[in-house]
């Protein structure tokens, strides 16, 4: 289960970086105030909590670039949690 969540976080961060035109380290700095967060997360020896998973997914949902397609995993998380992403004004 943890490996699936890890994969989801890494893929979501990569998709966010691509959609916003920044580096994954920038996503880490913005989401967790830690530019090395996703580098460490890629190490299967490093553990993380379900709370961390939800915090990062919530941040991505709330800050997703307007008019850019969200990855399916993020849309699924939104549907499963009932989270209402912050509306970005155009």
Q: Which characteristics define this entry?
A:
5 helices
Q: Which spans of ≥5 residues are poorly predicted at pLDDT below 50?
A: none
Give the amount of beta strand, in percent: under 5%
Mean pLDDT: 93
What pattern of helices and strands is seen along the backbone?
HHHHH
Q: What's the count of strands?
A: 0
Number of helices: 5
Distance between the termini: 37 Å
Portion of residues within helices = 55-70%
Q: Can you offer a commentary on this structure?
A:
This protein is mainly α and 90 residues long. It is built from 5 helices and no strands. It starts with a helix and ends in a 9-residue tail after the last helix.
In short:
The chain is an all-alpha fold and 90 residues long. The protein has helices spanning 2-20, 24-32, 37-41, 50-63, 72-81.
């Amino acid at each position: 289960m943890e490996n699936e969540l890890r994969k989801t976080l890494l893929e979501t961060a990569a998709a966010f970086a691509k959609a916003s035109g920044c580096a994954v380290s920038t996503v880490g700095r913005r989401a967790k105030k830690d530019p090395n967060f996703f580098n460490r997360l890629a190490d299967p020896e490093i553990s993380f909590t379900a709370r961390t998973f939800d915090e990062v997914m919530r941040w991505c949902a709330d800050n997703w670039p307007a008019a850019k397609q969200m990855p399916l995993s993020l849309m699924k998380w939104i549907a499963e949690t009932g989270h209402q992403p912050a509306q970005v004004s155009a």
